[in-house]
Amino acid sequence: MKALVTVKRVIDYNVKVRIKPDGSDVDLTHVKMAMNPFCEIAIEEAVRLKEKGVISEIIVVSIGAQVVQEQLRAALAMGADRGILIQTDQTLGSFSTAKILKTVVESENPNLIIMGKQSIDSDNNQTGQMLAALLGWGQGTFASELTVHADTISVTREVDGGLSTVELNLPALVTVDLRLNTPRYVSVPNIMKAKRKTIDITALETLNLSLVENNEILSVESPPTRQAGIQVKTVDELLDKLKNEAKVLS
Amino acid sequence: MKTLIIVEHDHVQLMPSIAHLVYAAKNIGYPIALLVIGSNCQSVAKSAAVIDNVSEVICADASVYEHQLPENSALLIQALSHDYSHILVASSTFGKNLMPRVAALLSVDQISDVIAIQNESIFKRPIYAGNAIATIKSHAQIKVMTVRSTAFESVAMSGHQAPIVTCDIVHDNNLSRFIKAENAASDRPELTAARVVVSGGRGLANADNFQLLYQLADKLNAAVGASRAAVDAGFVPNDMQVGQTGKIVAPDLYIAVGISGAIQHLAGMKDSKVIVAINKDADAPIFKIADYGLSQDLFEVLPELIAKL
């Protein structure tokens, strides 16, 4: 069984976000970048399935500038077998991303696609579901547990009210949530080994896709900041304020 | 030009978010139709028909829709879409699972997690875990969006009677099957809909001490939440998590107990109307956003608070 896993290069989750002075976008110059944390969980899950003998090959794919090879190498060091980079300097929305990934899926024919549920930059939470729709596959989003059978996969999903389990016919697409696993630390020998693994680079233009971006960013601003209120000394004072000042208790 | 809102329900009742979604849709300015998808969902459709500002309720009632799975629900919505300029759903796990699938079938990007509607094509949404707010102009023929219900007021359900129209489009689902749901049983209000939320953090020290929070919640008819630290420490299950990676809440009153106020937690509750922080560490970041701070030992404060309410 062959698995395709996607990774995205995003701002490191520990970095504080700065907005450009002209308010046009978030400023990413000289900012530490890393693999999207949800993508890391997706890779980890694929590697665990390979260690269990469920999956025989893991292909990791990303879309972006040449520098995205860093994140593909990181995924290869975690245990993916080979990488694919669809190279472009364009900023792509989720639907374009899904269309590009569809062409990769059609040439690689994986049985299973594992993706992060969202990237921590645009927070869209849509590419996985879109790719599943374009392929006409079943989807298991926000996975906290996966069990692969011969022709199906059971996916336990984290939903608002608790957990929900669905069974999908293979091929299928899964997007992963935080609780699925804890990604491993990569060892130095594995980093060295990853340098010898192949990354196939394809220029986006050669795919001849017609890509239209629907969502135009007009501006980006800081969220309204909340002012610190007051310190109360006693429970009585707190209750008095909540009843008579804030009027949220009667 | 019409707006369609997908109704989230459990076949017994509507999720309260629907009244907020209708309020949000009023800003678009077109007639508002609701779509109820399910099996034996006529009574839910009837309760949706009394929501103010709704011009009609479409009821797609078929056994294949029993579990409201996205694979065939999205095909149904696609089939109905040509009458609409906007399709909305709450940005709950239900909406997030379903709506991007609809958007892809309609060849458009989705606008996710909308928190403000300026006009029919300009929307605001949080990015980077709410650390930035983007204003987006959608050039799509049809606007497919998920809406953060806590960002909008709600319309009344005052007994107005919108017509209920039956939709008999049936799409089978040969891709996925529902197996089971494990719901966290609770007779307290749902976290994202509660008027008052009390949340506990690592300061509670263990799972047993959450009983104190439950007692406080019972006095206030509140929902109980937790920080990621408390969830990761195993004090409470994950579905109680408030924060960027958990639930986003915006109640009238949010009481944070023993929570330091990590950015990831603040992202989930900073839009609450009134925030109270109880934490013995006077330097905890939660005090920087709290309206009322009480810097004392929670194990002394909580029993007193419970007794005096």
Number of domains of chain A: 1
Relative strand content of chain B: 25-35%
Secondary structure category of chain A = alpha/beta
Can you tell me the residue ranges of chain B where pLDDT is under 50 for at least 5 consecutive residues?
none
Shape of chain B: elongated
Main sheet of chain B? Answer: 7 strands, parallel
Instruction: Classify the fold: give the CATH topology of chain A.
Output: Rossmann fold
The tally of beta strands of chain A, per DSSP, is 13
Explain what you see.
The complex is a heterodimer of chains A (250) and B (309). With 250 residues, chain A is α/β, with parallel strands linked by helices. Chain A has one domain (2-221): HUPs (Rossmann fold, 3-Layer(aba) Sandwich). Chain A contains six helices and 13 strands. Chain A has helices at residues 37-51, 69-78, 94-108, 127-135, 188-195, 235-245; strands at 2-6, 9-11, 33-35, 57-64, 82-87, 112-116, 138-148, 152-159, 162-169, 172-176, 199-203, 215-221, 230-232. Chain A has a nine-stranded mixed sheet with strand order 9-8-7-10-6-1-4-5-11, with helices on both faces. Chain A has a two-stranded antiparallel ribbon with strand order 2-3. In chain A, α3 (94-108) packs across α4. Chain B has 309 residues and is α/β, with parallel strands linked by helices. Helix content of chain B is 24%, strand content 27%. Chain B has eight helices and 16 strands. In chain B, the strands form three sheets. In chain B, strands 5-9-4-1-2-3-10 form a seven-stranded parallel sheet, sandwiched between helices. Chain B has a five-stranded parallel sheet with strand order 13-12-14-15-16. In chain B, strands 6-7-8 form a three-stranded antiparallel sheet, with no helix packed on it. In chain B, α3 (70-80) packs across α4 (93-105) and α5 (210-220) runs parallel beside α8. The longest helix of chain B has 13 residues, at 93-105. The radius of gyration of chain B is 21 Å and the shape is elongated. The N and C termini of chain B lie far apart (51 Å). The interface between A and B is large, with 77 and 82 residues. β12 of chain A pairs antiparallel with β8 of chain B, so a sheet runs across the interface.
